[in-house]
Amino acid sequence: MQSTGNPDGMPEIVVSASAYDRLSDMADAAAARSPHVARQLLRELDRATIVSDDAVPAGTVQIGSTVHYQLDGTEPREVRLTLPIDADIAKGTVSILTPVGAALLGLSEGQAIEFASPQGGRHSLRVLAVRPPA
């Protein structure tokens, strides 16, 4: 495992090596049109522990995972984390290039994270359950 750094107070996250490379490139490309989310995703990637694709622990949110989570203490929600091209909130999919999608990446069941919205509000997200990608 390779850790690229983890600021104090943030939950440990794990990302596969192939996802790390693809998402780093995607965040760089999105910086001009979505700077807040691109920065958020890059911060998550910077602090992630990078593992081989076959070493991602069970119960860890990856692209394609279905995640049951709670946002700001509201009713639990369920989404599948996707690349932007596959995102459709009406179908229960959320892009990695959204504040919630970037926050979910690499978390495991039971972990929580706080993040800022583009408007500056603070949010708290807790992962309740994770189903692996199909």
Primary descriptors:
single chain, 134 residues, alpha/beta, 5-stranded mixed sheet, 3-stranded mixed sheet, 8 strands, globular, disordered N terminus
Structure, described:
32% of the residues are buried. β4 (66-71) and β5 (77-82) form a beta hairpin. It is built from 3 helices and 8 strands; from the N terminus they run ββααββββαββ. It has helices spanning 17-30, 35-47, 99-104, and strands at residues 2-3, 14-16, 49-51, 66-71, 77-82, 93-95, 112-116, 122-131. The chain has 134 residues and is an alpha/beta fold. The protein has a 5-stranded mixed beta sheet with strand order 6-5-4-8-7. It has a 3-stranded mixed beta sheet with strand order 1-3-2. The longest helix is centred in the first third of the chain and has 14 residues, at 17-30. α1 packs antiparallel against α2 (35-47).
Unreliable runs, pLDDT <50, ≥5 residues? 1-7
Strand order, largest beta sheet: 6-5-4-8-7
**DSSP strand count:** 8
In round numbers, the mean pLDDT is 90
* Structural class by SSE content: alpha/beta
Helix content: 10-25%
N-C termini distance: 24 Å
Describe the global form. Answer: globular
Largest sheet: 5 strands, mixed
Estimate the strand proportion: 25-35%
What gyration radius follows from the Cα positions, in whole Å? 13 Å
SSE string = EEHHEEEEHEE
Oligomer: single chain
Number of helices, counting only DSSP H or I runs of 4 residues or more: 3
Q: Outline of this structure?
A:
By secondary structure, the chain is α/β, with parallel strands linked by helices. The chain contains three helices and eight strands. The strands form two sheets. The protein has a five-stranded mixed beta sheet. Strands 1-3-2 form a three-stranded mixed beta sheet.
